[in-house]
Model the fold of this input.
Amino acid sequence: MPSALPAPPDPSGENGPAAATSRTKPGPRRRNRPCTALALLAAAAALLTTATACGPDTNSAAHHGSSASTDHKNPGPTGLDDLKRWKDGGWQNWGRWARKAQDFANPVIKNHWQPDRMARAQAAPDVGVRAGDAAGGHGATDPEPRPVRAEEVARPYHRNMAPVGKIFFDSPKGPMVCSGTIVEDPAHPGKSDLVWTAGHCVHSGRQGGWMRNIVFVPSYNDTGVPMSRVGTTPTREVTPYGRFWADWITTSGEWIDLGSAESGNAGSAYDFAVLHVRPENGGGKSLQETVGAAAQVWFNAPHADGISSVKAFGYPAAPPYDGARMMACLDRPGRLTMRPGTPPMDRIGCTMTGGTSGGGWFVSRGGKLALISNTSISSTAHTWLAGPYLGPEAQRVFTTISAKFAGSR
Done:
């Protein structure tokens, strides 16, 4: 049975962030009973045990995300005038779409992501796989799993699965959403600013570039009000801990060079990314300190046949879901190989849809919750999900961003 994650501070209590914007005044603060470690232990254990139905070169900048360059060729903002134009809508110029890792730019635009705009965001492009798309061969791919119906995560989310949240970003097709997870940073124990997600949630792969205005919202829509009401719900309930902007991102060179944001292919086996974030409204606390929880990443975990069950979390936003609520699927994983020579992916039965991309897959390791993959692709019928195996390539991507900020704080 997994032990409790650190008890997160109650976002609506005396010590919580209770984030407010210029459009929404904070309501009266009230003292709530603190979330005890014992209570969170029970919640985390239930989430993992309750049954449901049924390599990049680390020295190459091209293989890693980076912050905005000051080079004059960088299509992002490079000075005060450029920054003002960017914030006034210049970011919508997709004719100058930054593709290279070193051209990533994501300056903070305060109040860009208000509850009503978040409610209008669509699921990221549905990365579907048709029958026959996977590579054949003995031992490469296990039989297709039976569908597992997704179940709602208990609310409020900050008491039951605090590390999970939604990622919002702008794309050429408009505002979109994915899912993400706060993960522990070995360079900053207990003070991580790192978020794990899918590569296609931040970079469109071989035929595009970096998404824009990328933010992470932990425990999004904490009480799970219907999406039709999210736009009019007080900000402190929709974004209980505030909004955290990515100031640096790493993803794999394989994803940038091979990946497709519209269909599964060889790049899907490397479809992972890590964000380093900072709070929109500033502050001295890290993301992990603010939320009170983070999951460890288990690299080089046993392959699918060595794990009895895994639970995938996310905010599905494509029909029949609307992105308002956190959902989860529990199943025994199998293997899916997209192309010969690429690492087998993990696959589980699950009915979650687009918007789930980037959401963490968890197991119990040493009494703690451990992330072993993230949602990358699904069947076109939404009967299963698959995520990349987090082997040496993923570990190098993670180590790169952790090391980059090791001297900060």
